[in-house]
Amino acid sequence: MMRKWQGTKDVRYLSDYALLLALTKDYGKARDIYLQVESIAPGRYATAASLGTVYELLGDDRQALTWIRKAVRIDPASHMGSEWLHVKILEAKLQGSSAVNSKFLLNTSFGTQALPRTALSKQQLLKLRDALFYQLNERVSFIKPKDALVAQLLFDLGNVAFLTDIEYESEIIYGMAREYGYASPLRRARVAALAKQIKQRYHSKPAGKA
User: Fold this and answer.
1) Cα(27)–Cα(30) distance, rounded to whole angstroms?
2) Within 10 A of 11 (CB to CB), how many other CB atoms are there?
3) In b/e form, how buried is each residue of 154-193, taking b as 16+ CB within 10 angstroms?
4) Right CATH number for 1-75 from 1.25.40.10, 1.10.10.60, 1.10.3210.10, 3.30.430.20?
């Protein structure tokens, strides 16, 4: 890739080289190459998003937030329109444990009762589910248990799945939330309510039938 970059001066080859460095966990070198790409071809969405990710992997959440915000400004519809959540995740990491909650991260909540409650429409829930799934799918690939922020997001994704009638998926996600360290009694209450709903929906027989 470097030879192709040197021969053609096509910045895409340089960007591909940075991606390869990131995939092999040479994050510092990847950052330097992406910064070089930015200096040659400023304003590319892919560069800003990649720099945000690499800075986060290097533990520099403040710089990561700067670059992810820039990426969102360049292309707010990217990553299925879910990068707003990446911004909230980085803001929460900078603010600390007090920001690790549904209200801060998602600007909504699902109540404190056994059955989750929401003010969101079905369409809004589905859009939120897509954003959570997209961001978590990337995040769990490089963050291993336990992690309070991932645990909270998984619990919220479980709530959304519950509310959109994907019970079996919700059951699995609640289990992942526990694996990542979500220890609130509310999770157990939701799991019990979910099991009851699954039993009623799929295993009860209509009255009068054998």
Assistant:
1) 5
2) 16
3) bbbbbbbbbbbeeeebbbebbebbbebebeeebbeebbee
4) 1.25.40.10
Q: pLDDT in tens for each of the 210 residues of the chain? A: 555 545 556 687 788 899 999 999 999 999 999 999 999 999 999 999 999 999 999 999 999 999 999 999 999 988 888 999 999 999 999 999 999 999 999 999 999 999 999 999 999 999 999 999 999 998 898 889 999 999 999 999 999 999 998 888 898 999 999 999 999 999 999 999 888 888 877 665 555 443
Map out the domains of the chain as residue ranges: 1-75, 94-203
The model's pTM: 0.86
Question: Which amino acid, one-letter code, is at 90?
Answer: L
**Amino acid present at 92:** A
